[in-house]
Amino acid sequence: MKDKDLEGAERSQLSRRQLVKYAGVGATLAAASPLVGGGAAWANDDREDDKRDKGGESRNRVWRAGDHHIHSEYSGEFDTSTNPPTFHKGADAVYPIVTNAIMAKNFGLTWAMVTDHGGPTHSKVNLEQAYPDLLLSRKLVPDVLQFWGMEFDAPAMDHHTLMIPRHDDEAQMLFDLESKFAKRDPFPAVPGGDTEAKMVEFLKYAKTLRQKPLVIAHHASRSAPGWGVWGQDTPHEFRNGNNAAPDIYVGFEGAPGHQAGPLNGGARGGYGNHPTHGGYDQMTARVGGLWDSLLGEGRRWWITATSDSHVHWTRGGSDFWPGEYSKTYVLARQDYGDIMDGLRNGRIWVTTGDLITSLDLTARSQGKDAAMGETVTVTRRDRTDVEIEIKFRPLNGQNHNGDRPEVRRVDLIVGQITGPSANLDADTNPTTKVVARFGPRDWRKQGNDYVVKHTLRNVDGDMYARVRGTNTDEAEPLADGLESPWEDLWFYSNPVFVHVR
């Protein structure tokens, strides 16, 4: 079904009274919120490109900011003294779906996804209660592409994004997957529903579907008791899941949500055991760590950044609004399918605090080039050099804390691809190194961007390159304490690959 047909189907489900009611709620929120304004003009540098895309004059992809981990009032609670359990809204998160969409738009996002918690018989709540509200929100906030899905109760693991492709049977598709595989959905609980084998079964089943979902792990080290000591999510589970469905199970959050925790005396990300580092999960922040171990096998495994918004910190929560602090940028058209394609294929970079608003990473050799998520293939010669180009655009104005953050350093990180590891729990890649660090004297101005170039000499094997940058003077991101998250900002690219034949 085409998008215009979907819009017609959604329109048919909206009564005039509902539209007036929800439009009034949206207008009141936009007028009353002290956070609306201040930065909305700069937050989407691609506003004119969006207009051209919608008008059909250009099919070019641009960087579009979004968030795939947001909670609404449908993250509630269940009274299991009744059969079936009775659902109550607003127990864990408090905002209507449309409120999240309005705030996402205000803070510069063009796509978003509500991912509510599951629970006993929650699949029915999603289908009968939450989905109609999503249809309303799509109608009221059309500038934000709003995906359907949930925070999936992954068997044997912590929570995951389960993103459903936009199509006419999206609601039934989520009901099918949640009711069959979410570990908390059956009531009463069924044996064997919370095992790694069940997770692999879920991914294999998802791979058979014509409309393929996306699965991304949330706050993967939140239960880890120490540095390099894993908790609920383990390296072998990522590998087994990615082996089962490499085009569906594609990554984890590099920067988890709940980043406003320190503003109310808590930990960034809610990481109460081992902390985040510069706001990033240790699986991502450690050079040569687990992420690099997966990339060193040649896996296409990506990182994202989300808000995990439940309750805003000004109301006593630990969260920022969607897009207020963390953003996941995807190179795509303003189109549901192309956003998912970008997430699936690694056309992604992430930032906190709007440290930058654009980032491109390119590898060039022998007259060919590749960008983030792509591979450049070169022929082995006596001397094979690869030029890496990093182009970024600093924030032109204030971020949503009223600051003007400045990039103090950019790091180029390179690792070798040596093939699958015999140890499914391997969590290091000793070949990965920071091969170059660049400061303001090293980059040159090119229009609104800054450009850095570096040549990798005598490349004789498969490799990948990725970059990160910061407004701090930390050589490596330090363990986080109670410092303001606005003082400790980082951006990360996803990798570009080089294949030598």
Automatic annotation (TrEMBL):
This is Phosphoesterase. Residues 49-66 have a biased composition (Basic and acidic residues). Residues 37-66 are annotated as: Disordered. It comes from the Bacteria. It comes from Micromonospora aurantiaca.
